Structure formats: C-alpha cells, structure tokens
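Deliverable D5.2: sample structural annotation.
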Amino acid sequence: MAGAKYKRVVLKVSGEGLCGPDRVGIDDDELYRIAHEIKTVVDLGVQLAVVVGAGNIVRGAVVARDSHIEEVTGHYMGMLATVINALAVQDTLEALGVHTRVQSAIGMDRVCEKFIRRRAIRHLEKGRVVIFAAGTGNPFVTTDTCAALRASEIKADAVLKATKVDGVYDADPQTAPNATRYQRLSFDEALHKRLGVMDVSAFDLCQRNRIPVIVFNLKQPGNMARAVQGQPVGTLVD
C-alpha cells in the first residue's frame, strides 16, 4: 500500500455513522467497520484524531424543540452523549490492537482525560489515536466546528469529513438523481454556492489555517485510507 500524503489528520464522524438502519443507538457492526477503517489508516503511519458526534443518541436543538428542556441544556446533553460514543469507539479500537486516548472538553476524569493540546499532540506522536469528545465544551457549537478547531490546534494536515454520500453535490443526490458531484472546490466556492459542507465557523477555521477538508463516503471500504493517500476520493475542499 502506498504511503500517506497527509501525516496528521482529524476524522469527523457523525453520531449517525455509528448506528444501524434505525438511526439510533450504537450498532456493533458499524462500530467495528469504522474501527477497522481507522486501523488501516493508523497502519499507514498516519497520526489520527477523531471527533465524534451524538446524533444517534441526542440532538440538543431537537430536545429543546420537543420538550420543556432549555436548548442550552439540550446542547450539554449532546456533548455528554459524544463521550458515550467516544468510549465505544475507544474500546472497539483497543480490541483491534490500536492504542487510544479519549480527551473531553468537559472534565470527567473517571472515564477520560481532559483536553490538553500539548498532551494530545504527544499522544499522536506516540502513535495513539486521540478521540476528542464533548465538542468544544460550549453550547450552540457543532461538532464540525470542534473538528476544525482541534485540527487547527494540533496543526493537522487535513480534516476528513465522513458522510453517507460520496462527496459534495450541487443538489441533494438522494432527492435529485441528476445532481453533479464536485471533485474539488475552493472554500469560497463552497460558501458562495451554499453547499452546506460544514457550518460557516468550521469552514472559516479551516480556510484561515489552510487545512483542506475531504468529504467522503464512510460506507465505502478503503475510502479513508485512499483519502489520506491523496487519491481522488469524494470531494476535496481547499
């Protein structure tokens, strides 16, 4: 297998990426499949950090919309749910022989480390996968922004945004069969065309720090490894 183009990357996986067809909870088969893909990337010598979402468990805005819970509280519930997902990813990776650390933006030292930038970098240098949990620790901030922020802090070479489609399209490919996939976009093009790849604050961080974003299909085996090798997978935004 060819070597990696990107030596240090942040992988953003949504909570829905961890669940099965019912789109809730954690599906062991999906979890194992993602962990196996991550191991393949680590075996290439890539320093890999992971940011996980929590849409498979709870979404803060939805909790607030459908209940008497305040939206701020709902967002904190979502942050805590990302820790649940992070621990699941950690144990599955460890079962495959991949050394890991979970770092949380919200302190909970009984189950994981507190996020410390220098410590995270040191873990990566030692070949450990670092799983960033609890978002940025702030409400009203998406895990996309967390991925962009952590990538900026650890000086990552790229952000890999795992999705259920094979890149960025000019329309929703699930409802528009004639939608066209972009192979490459500039940040300005993606923003101007309102393609919704990531939220604006995440895009701004990546653009300012010159961190390319690769949007790819998580369900396609080998895509993650091909992306870090610089092969034409999904859509490159740079």
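Annotation notes: Residues 8-237 form a domain with the Carbamate kinase fold (CATH 3.40.1160.10). Residues 71-95 form the longest helix (25 residues).
The annotation will be released with the project's public dataset once the embargo ends.
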